[in-house]
Amino acid sequence: MQCSYCGATVVPASAPPVARASFTEAQRRAQAEADPQADLRCGHDRYRVLGPLGQGRYSEVLLAERVGAPARRVLAKLARRDEDAAALARQHAVLGQLQALQGAGVAYFLSRLPLAVGLHRADYRGQARPALLLRHPPGLWGSLAEVRRAQRSGLDPRHAVWMWRRLLELLGFLHAHGWVHGDIAPEHALVEPVGHGILLCGWGQASRPPARRAAAAFASELVRVTWTLRALLHGGDEGLPGTGSQTPAPLAELLLRCCDPEAAPVRQGAAAIAQALTEAAAEAFGPARFIPFDPAPDGA
Fold first, then answer.
1. Residue 284 to residue 282: CA distance in whole angstroms
2. What is the DSSP letter of 190?
């Protein structure tokens, strides 16, 4: 087909056109498959809820898939109460500011953050609730908190190395732009097992601290990352996390050192810890190599 206004070819002659009536009918059938009692409506879009993912401080988190074309999966954060809508709006605003950052490597680092689809007034189970929709990248398994529950005897220290490095890389990028996440915890780090990736969520407490407080805020955040790794290595047992019974001495010593906000690597920033981690890992395990990661080896 050719546009009668500008003459451009809109549909090549080799591509069979689709009648509008056929397209509309196919769309109607796809939408008719949805269950109005179980699905989520946001404006003109309907999402099939695939299951709950957890309970946040201000919201209930669901995994959902858009009904119709183009299909896409989202994390739907539904406010518990109307007054919690402000917390979702703040997260939406923070993610928008982060996605606007510029600089070297920005495309990679921003892919490690949630991408906001939008703020909505969503209908779910007969109730209208404020909702923040976030794009759900393929390949995510669950949070590091779920990894800890699945691997109760403690994480293989070799996997702790790449997880620690991914978090340090991302925080180094954010700190360089003056941002702190503000709520580092195993529940806010989602793992991508196949590609050894980490996506950081839970941006409700993110901020840009004043210059006079920035160094202390960065150090505090790096210490919290260290404790997150200690919790994974310690496993599912209760009590103050150790460094894991199978953790080689060079890595265990670095973990203990980086729990002190005054330690040299912590004060020097994420890049300094990452360099120390590279050296400790080489001493403990030899040359770097890729080791497949199964977050739930016991079928959890």
1. 5
2. E
- pLDDT, tens digit, for every residue of 136-174? 988 999 899 999 999 999 999 999 999 999 999 999 999
3-state SS, residue 293:
coil
User: What are the backbone angles phi and psi of residue 197, rounded to the nearest 5°?
Assistant: -115, 160
Closest to 90 in 3D by CA, of 136, 63, 58, 122? 58
Question: What pLDDT, on a 0 to 100 scale, did the predictor assign at position 26?
Answer: 67
Q: Which residues contact 196 (CB under 8 A, 6 or more apart)?
A: 162, 166, 290, 293
Mean pLDDT, all residues of the chain: 89
Q: Note the pTM of the prediction, 2 decimals.
A: 0.84
Residue 236: pLDDT band (50, 70, 90) is confident
Q: With contact defined as beta carbons under 8 Å apart, do 172 and 270 qualify?
A: yes
Tokens matching residue 242: 């150790």
Residue 37, CB-side half-sphere exposure with 13 Å CA sphere: 0
Burial class (CB in 10 A: 0-12, 13-18, 19+), 221: buried
The SS3 assignment for 7 reads coil
